[in-house]
């Protein structure tokens, strides 16, 4: 691998040169640049090419997310029900008062939080186990990895239907497992099934992220620990976990934010009945079923803020280990 | 490795493997089994069908509803994948090979988008697309799919591009190859596996989406299979739609199974390389 192609190298030089400004192209620098990069004759051309290549991607990403989010803030400040378009008017923060004093919102918020915390915790434990199995197994490594990728790849709605029919009385093989009732018509069992479906679907993803971290654990270190008399558990907690910490945090952050968006499984399994709606489900119902753009947008903004706060707390708590702060120096 | 390669260890690992495989496969086998059951035996609660039939498949392929949705799903996912991979490759090339201010910003922005709650976009996109006439059209779904696939594409591709020995290009040119030849004969073959892997990951993402598909469509014009599935339920009141839903579910699972079977190694490497980098 050429030196200039390493991420850290490229990143560092970009940082170091920024203060000198756009115009300051010292001849010596230009010479090294030419030697380093076969594509561009000088730095200016390289910059232009860089911007040109990134522009389409950046433009699409910003246009489809930043503009709608700002627009959504604007919509959330209006009374805007598509069934009564002539009543549209600016009402300030009234929608926020409506949503934040609404018990459905808080129930949905509680459900979403519960699902997020429980599924992520269980997935971390199971994912770690699966990662170890995929990393270390002596027989059939390919088969295990292939099997584990199926839940990851399968369409969430398909998996949700499978779980739904499994628990449907009369049809399903699981329906009579605990009682004669219909599990998907009671709140506690519905929530448990939603969480089970989520965990089944996303544990492999968690495991793959953790496996990437496992690959970074030096074998020598494990061997040395083993020679010094460390038990398997000690090797796991004292050697592997510290090395894997960055990978664990990345996996936790991504899964937490992903779990907070839970929608497909609830839609198919319960359609939000028996107070099993998540915030996403509630926002969808207000928008598509209720056609209330003002309230729907208010929920959109609140969900966005909640996710931003979760991400911020993660980054603050774990500092440099979080993605974004050092995404190029990780290796 | 500290684990001793004894028979007992092998058996223990083998047992764990079996548990993982069974747990991963049961829901898939179950829905496949349901799709082969006859209406009479559908509600017998048995895991395997007692009488096998292909009627459910004949039914769905004879309805316009499913065939249209399948065409929409394939078309939308393929176009979105193609565009996302091309745009992602351009950006990833710049990120891994070029030096320019704003690079970190782009990486940061795509990270933010990867964490973005998609439901927050549902209300504004619904209204914007209605005004622009994009609501319930292919482009109306392709646009958000590209957006949310781009971070994945950029991360995976830049991880791949950073592993390419770019000096080979210089060497080829020194040996008399033109810029075009160097790219075609040397760099393109090296980059192809990365592009292919990324395309699979992006396709799976687009193929999977439910939230955008259900909020930004309203008719068969752009409705994709996952959404059509959820509508099967309400529409045929006189006939139990379970068999049809399961058959349709199996049909859209087939591409995923094929990808996983043939490209397991690539998918794992693609997902993990992007992950370690952040």
Automatic annotation (TrEMBL), chain A:
<protein>
    <submittedName>
        <fullName>Carbohydrate ABC transporter membrane protein 1, CUT1 family</fullName>
    </submittedName>
</protein>
<feature type="domain" description="ABC transmembrane type-1">
    <location>
        <begin position="109"/>
        <end position="314"/>
    </location>
</feature>
<feature type="transmembrane region" description="Helical">
    <location>
        <begin position="146"/>
        <end position="166"/>
    </location>
</feature>
<comment type="similarity">
    <text>Belongs to the binding-protein-dependent transport system permease family.</text>
</comment>
<feature type="transmembrane region" description="Helical">
    <location>
        <begin position="291"/>
        <end position="315"/>
    </location>
</feature>
<dbReference type="InterPro" id="IPR000515">
    <property type="entry name" value="MetI-like"/>
</dbReference>
<feature type="transmembrane region" description="Helical">
    <location>
        <begin position="199"/>
        <end position="218"/>
    </location>
</feature>
<dbReference type="GO" id="GO:0005886">
    <property type="term" value="C:plasma membrane"/>
</dbReference>
<dbReference type="Pfam" id="PF00528">
    <property type="entry name" value="BPD_transp_1"/>
</dbReference>
<feature type="region of interest" description="Disordered">
    <location>
        <begin position="1"/>
        <end position="41"/>
    </location>
</feature>
<keyword id="KW-0472">Membrane</keyword>
<keyword id="KW-0812">Transmembrane</keyword>
<dbReference type="InterPro" id="IPR035906">
    <property type="entry name" value="MetI-like_sf"/>
</dbReference>
<feature type="transmembrane region" description="Helical">
    <location>
        <begin position="49"/>
        <end position="74"/>
    </location>
</feature>
<keyword id="KW-1133">Transmembrane helix</keyword>
<keyword id="KW-0813">Transport</keyword>
<feature type="transmembrane region" description="Helical">
    <location>
        <begin position="104"/>
        <end position="134"/>
    </location>
</feature>
<dbReference type="InterPro" id="IPR052730">
    <property type="entry name" value="Sugar_ABC_transporter"/>
</dbReference>
<dbReference type="GO" id="GO:0055085">
    <property type="term" value="P:transmembrane transport"/>
</dbReference>
From TrEMBL, chain B:
<dbReference type="GO" id="GO:0005886">
    <property type="term" value="C:plasma membrane"/>
</dbReference>
<dbReference type="Pfam" id="PF00528">
    <property type="entry name" value="BPD_transp_1"/>
</dbReference>
<dbReference type="InterPro" id="IPR050901">
    <property type="entry name" value="BP-dep_ABC_trans_perm"/>
</dbReference>
<keyword id="KW-1003">Cell membrane</keyword>
<feature type="transmembrane region" description="Helical">
    <location>
        <begin position="105"/>
        <end position="126"/>
    </location>
</feature>
<feature type="transmembrane region" description="Helical">
    <location>
        <begin position="12"/>
        <end position="32"/>
    </location>
</feature>
<keyword id="KW-0813">Transport</keyword>
<protein>
    <submittedName>
        <fullName>Carbohydrate ABC transporter membrane protein 2, CUT1 family</fullName>
    </submittedName>
</protein>
<keyword id="KW-1133">Transmembrane helix</keyword>
<comment type="similarity">
    <text>Belongs to the binding-protein-dependent transport system permease family.</text>
</comment>
<dbReference type="GO" id="GO:0055085">
    <property type="term" value="P:transmembrane transport"/>
</dbReference>
<keyword id="KW-0812">Transmembrane</keyword>
<feature type="transmembrane region" description="Helical">
    <location>
        <begin position="138"/>
        <end position="161"/>
    </location>
</feature>
<feature type="transmembrane region" description="Helical">
    <location>
        <begin position="69"/>
        <end position="93"/>
    </location>
</feature>
<feature type="domain" description="ABC transmembrane type-1">
    <location>
        <begin position="70"/>
        <end position="263"/>
    </location>
</feature>
<dbReference type="InterPro" id="IPR000515">
    <property type="entry name" value="MetI-like"/>
</dbReference>
<dbReference type="InterPro" id="IPR035906">
    <property type="entry name" value="MetI-like_sf"/>
</dbReference>
<feature type="transmembrane region" description="Helical">
    <location>
        <begin position="182"/>
        <end position="205"/>
    </location>
</feature>
<keyword id="KW-0472">Membrane</keyword>
<feature type="transmembrane region" description="Helical">
    <location>
        <begin position="242"/>
        <end position="263"/>
    </location>
</feature>
């Amino acid at each position: 691998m050429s030196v200039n192609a390493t991420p850290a190298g490229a990143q560092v030089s970009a940082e170091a040169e920024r203060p000198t400004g756009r115009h300051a192209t010292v001849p010596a620098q230009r010479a090294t640049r030419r030697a380093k990069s076969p594509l561009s004759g000088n730095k200016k051309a390289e910059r232009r090419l860089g911007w040109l290549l990134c522009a389409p991607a950046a433009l699409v990403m910003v246009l489809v997310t930043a503009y709608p989010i700002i627009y959504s803030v604007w919509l959330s400040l209006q009374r805007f029900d598509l069934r009564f378009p002539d009543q549209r008017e600016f009402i300030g923060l009234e929608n926020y008062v409506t949503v934040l004093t609404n018990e459905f919102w808080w129930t949905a918020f509680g459900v979403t939080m519960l699902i997020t915390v429980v599924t992520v915790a269980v997935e971390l434990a199971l994912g770690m186990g699966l990662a170890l199995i995929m990393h270390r197994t002596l027989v059939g490594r390919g088969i295990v990895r292939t099997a584990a990728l199926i839940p990851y790849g399968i369409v969430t709605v398909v998996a949700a239907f499978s779980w739904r029919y499994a628990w449907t009385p009369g049809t399903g093989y699981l329906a009579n497992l605990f009682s004669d009732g219909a599990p998907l018509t009671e709140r506690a069992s519905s929530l448990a099934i939603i969480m089970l479906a989520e965990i089944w679907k996303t544990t492999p993803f968690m495991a793959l992220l953790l496996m990437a971290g496992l690959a970074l654990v030096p074998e020598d270190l494990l061997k040395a620990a083993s020679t010094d008399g460390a038990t398997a558990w000690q090797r796991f907690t004292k050697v592997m976990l510290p090395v894997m910490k960055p990978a664990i945090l990345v996996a936790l952050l991504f899964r937490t934010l992903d779990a907070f968006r839970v929608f497909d499984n609830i839609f198919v399994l319960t359609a939000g009945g028996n107070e099993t709606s998540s915030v996403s489900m509630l926002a969808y119902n207000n928008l598509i079923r209720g056609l209330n753009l003002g309230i729907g947008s208010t929920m959109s903004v609140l969900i966005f803020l909640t996710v931003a706060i979760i991400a911020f707390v993660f980054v603050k708590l774990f500092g440099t280990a979080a993605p974004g702060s050092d995404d190029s120096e990780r290796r | 490795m500290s684990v001793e390669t004894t028979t007992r260890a092998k058996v223990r690992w083998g047992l764990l493997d079996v548990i993982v495989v069974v747990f991963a496969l049961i829901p898939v086998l179950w829905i496949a089994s349901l799709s082969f059951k006859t209406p009479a035996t559908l509600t017998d609660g048995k895991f395997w069908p007692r009488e096998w039939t292909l009627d459910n498949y004949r039914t769905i392929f004879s309805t316009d509803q499913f065939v249209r949705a399948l065409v929409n799903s394939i078309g939308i996912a393929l176009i979105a994948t193609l565009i996302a991979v091309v745009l992602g490759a351009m950006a990833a090339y710049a990120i891994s090979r070029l030096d320019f201010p704003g690079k970190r910003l782009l990486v940061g922005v795509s990270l933010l988008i990867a964490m973005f709650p998609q439901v927050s976009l549902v209300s504004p996109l619904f209204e914007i697309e209605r005004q622009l006439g994009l609501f319930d059209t292919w482009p109306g779904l392709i646009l958000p799919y590209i957006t949310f696939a781009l971070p994945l594409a950029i991360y995976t591709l830049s991880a791949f591009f950073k592993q390419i020995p770019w000096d080979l290009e210089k060497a080829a040119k020194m040996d008399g190859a033109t810029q075009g030849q160097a790219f075609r004969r040397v760099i393109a073959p090296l980059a192809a596996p990365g592009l292919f892997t990324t395309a699979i990951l992006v396709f799976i993402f687009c193929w999977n989406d439910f939230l955008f598909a259900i909020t930004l469509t309203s008719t068969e014009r752009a409705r994709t299979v996952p959404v059509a599935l959820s509508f099967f339920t309400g529409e045929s009141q006189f006939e139990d739609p379970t068999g049809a839903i399961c058959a349709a579910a199996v049909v859209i699972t087939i591409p995923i199974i094929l990808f996983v079977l043939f490209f397991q190694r690539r998918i794992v490497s693609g997902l993990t390389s992007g992950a370690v980098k952040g």
